[in-house]
Structure to design on (399 residues):
């Protein structure tokens, strides 16, 4: 079968500013074009439907992560930093670091953080409300809360924390092609990478945080001592911008869906499902790539060995083939099965941390705020991988 002759082709640039500003029309175009679409501009195969995205995420044998999960193909190109031992690795090498983080970030390990984070969330919301009832929720809440609780939980000292967001922003840009967004970050890469590396050393980490627990796993022989700093680096790379923009997503969702805010106020136990629904709806991580490990057939199309596949998580999360009224943010929906945290062996290992941050913040806010509404046009922050916000002006009515 000369299947490749039938591949629909698109010359769209998913990493252009026009698309990053509003990717939804492109997502629909790609979903409707077919199960696999050839992106001529990047010589890459795109999956934009739920079924193919989820199947590729699960099939790590055919769709490898070890050649990088960005546009760069590590078979031919030098990675911009030593590859992640988790994200940019396949079994069996992937498995030991993953097991360690699964335990360090698991629901059991987080139980002791809930009380502290609830108190931190209440203190933050009180401080913001004391300043006034009109504010920018992006920096004031979504930016502030993860930076208040997460670096402490990892065990990194206070100085230099302002480097975390710029480092993460660049790391997520670097999954895309070498465009202007990557160039913008380039001048600070050496400085930021050196700072992050310095924070991953055993001596730099407090002795009861996630970082120390990773080093303790190395002492027990579960990973090698050489692996420990890179596993800590994964926390610092993947754990900040993602939660900041995930919390932005849920705050934006509530500001624009007042009836859903009333539901949360009436039933605060919905905070967790609200966050997952926002992760489905907005997909803070929009895309990841895989690399075909052989000639892989998908939907009658052969993806040739060694070629990159771009998986549109965001598009899968709004695929009408899978979701009823996919564009509606709705707390009565069951969002489980969304691929916003990925799926399969690489599914976000920090998802319980993210949910706990969102849940404690939303719970504090729901107890204190009767109404939340837009106070001006929100503004996107463009990133090659993240669906991000620069500004979400809101006006709130305190209880
Ligand atoms: C890592 C890493 C980096 C970025 C994202 C991510 C969303 C993981 O360094 O392991 O997952």
């Amino acid at each position: 079968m000369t299947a490749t002759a039938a591949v629909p082709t698109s010359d769209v640039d998913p990493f252009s500013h026009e698309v990053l500003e509003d990717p939804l029309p492109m997502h629909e175009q790609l979903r409707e074009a077919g199960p696999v679409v050839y992106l001529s501009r990047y010589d890459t195969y795109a999956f934009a439907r739920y079924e193919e995205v989820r199947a590729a995420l699960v099939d790590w044998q055919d769709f490898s992560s070890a050649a990088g999960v960005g546009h760069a193909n590590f078979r031919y190109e030098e990675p911009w930093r030593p590859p992640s031992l988790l994200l940019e690795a396949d079994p069996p090498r992937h498995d030991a670091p993953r097991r360690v983080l699964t335990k360090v970030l698991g629901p059991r390990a987080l139980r002791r953080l809930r009380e502290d984070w609830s108190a931190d969330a209440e203190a933050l919301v009180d401080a913001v409300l004391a300043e006034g009832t009109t504010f920018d929720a992006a920096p004031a809440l979504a930016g502030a809360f993860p930076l208040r609780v997460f670096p402490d939980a990892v065990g990194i000292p206070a100085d230099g924390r302002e480097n975390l967001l710029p480092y993460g922003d660049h790391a997520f840009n670097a999954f895309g092609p070498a465009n202007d967004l990557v160039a913008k970050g380039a001048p600070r890469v050496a400085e930021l990478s050196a700072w992050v590396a310095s924070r991953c050393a055993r001596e730099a980490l407090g002795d009861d945080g996630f970082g120390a627990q990773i080093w303790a796993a190395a002492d027990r022989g579960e990973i090698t001592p050489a692996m420990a700093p890179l596993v800590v680096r994964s926390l610092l790379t993947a754990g900040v911008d993602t939660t900041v923009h995930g919390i932005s997503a849920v705050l934006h969702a509530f500001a624009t869906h007042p009836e859903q805010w009333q539901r949360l106020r009436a039933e605060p136990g919905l905070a967790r499902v609200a966050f997952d629904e926002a992760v489905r709806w907005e997909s803070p991580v929009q895309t990841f790539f895989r690399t075909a490990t052989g000639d892989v057939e998908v939907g009658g199309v052969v993806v040739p060995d060694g070629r990159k596949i771009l998986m549109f998580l965001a598009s899968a999360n709004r695929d009408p083939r899978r979701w009823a009224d996919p564009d509606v943010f709705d707390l009565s929906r069951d969002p489980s099965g969304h691929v916003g945290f990925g799926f399969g062996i690489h599914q976000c290992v920090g998802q319980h941390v993210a949910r706990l941050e969102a849940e404690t913040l939303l719970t504090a806010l729901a107890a204190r705020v009767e109404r939340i509404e837009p106070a001006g046009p929100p503004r996107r922050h463009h990133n090659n991988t993240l669906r991000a916000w620069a500004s979400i002006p809101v006006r709130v009515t305190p209880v």
